[in-house]
């Protein structure tokens, strides 16, 4: 048995408590990387922890666009999660994509009637990285997904300030006939919810294309 995150041999180092009561299949070290968000204590719009009412950012989005995202995030973006995403996304250690497959699979069960749509990378970014970090994680859940959107080349979001992210132009266009989206419920999936600008761009385009409902799921918030 191996750790679902770092792939190190796990069974020989498991305590009895971890063996019988842990559902994460992560070793002790990797378990410390992730802090689950208490879903009873989040903003109902963006999933921000410790905010049970619609936060200021979501009120502004609602005022500007006429809707909120209804985002669900698995973990807080803490130092441990930052270490994981640095290893996986930026250093390209593809083995770590299974770090939280059980939590992700469970969360997706709530969206049985939805088309699952991972946010795409641009062609240039995909060729540079060699994989889409969101699709890599989704593949292990065995849940089917649809590539509804495609993306033009833009500077990496990680290199932009908050103000630059918020002012970003629409990066997406449809990758399927509009009939595929009309009257459908769509769940956008991304790695990290930061300002929400990218997710809102995707949702705007899908709503304009006739989607009935658009929500989002991110690995961290």
UniProtKB/TrEMBL annotation:
Residues 176-220 form the Phosphoribosyltransferase domain. Gene3D superfamilies: 3.40.50.2020. SUPFAM superfamilies: PRTase-like. Belongs to the ComF/GntX family. This is ComF family protein. The lineage of its organism: Bacteria, Bacillati, Bacillota, Bacilli, Lactobacillales.
């Amino acid at each position: 048995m191996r750790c679902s995150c770092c792939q190190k041999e796990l069974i020989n180092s498991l305590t009895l408590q971890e063996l019988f009561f842990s559902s994460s299949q992560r070793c002790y070290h990797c378990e410390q990387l992730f802090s689950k968000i208490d879903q009873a204590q989040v903003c109902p719009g963006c999933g921000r922890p410790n905010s049970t009412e619609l936060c200021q950012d979501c009120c502004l989005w609602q005022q500007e666009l006429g809707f909120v995202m209804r985002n669900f995030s698995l973990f807080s973006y803490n130092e441990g999660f930052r270490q994981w995403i640095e290893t996986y996304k930026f250093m390209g250690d593809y083995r770590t994509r299974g770090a939280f497959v059980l939590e992700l699979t469970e969360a997706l069960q709530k969206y049985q009637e939805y088309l699952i749509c991972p946010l795409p990378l641009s062609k240039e970014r995909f060729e540079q990285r060699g994989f889409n970090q969101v699709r890599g994680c989704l593949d292990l859940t065995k849940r089917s997904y649809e590539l509804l959107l495609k993306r033009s080349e833009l500077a990496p979001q990680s290199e932009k300030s908050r103000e630059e992210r918020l002012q970003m132009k629409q990066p997406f266009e449809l990758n399927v006939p509009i009939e595929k989206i009309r009257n459908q419920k769509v769940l956008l999936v991304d790695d990290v919810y930061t300002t929400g600008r990218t997710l809102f761009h995707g949702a705007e385009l899908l709503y304009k294309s006739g989607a009935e409902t658009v929500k989002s799921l991110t690995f961290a918030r």
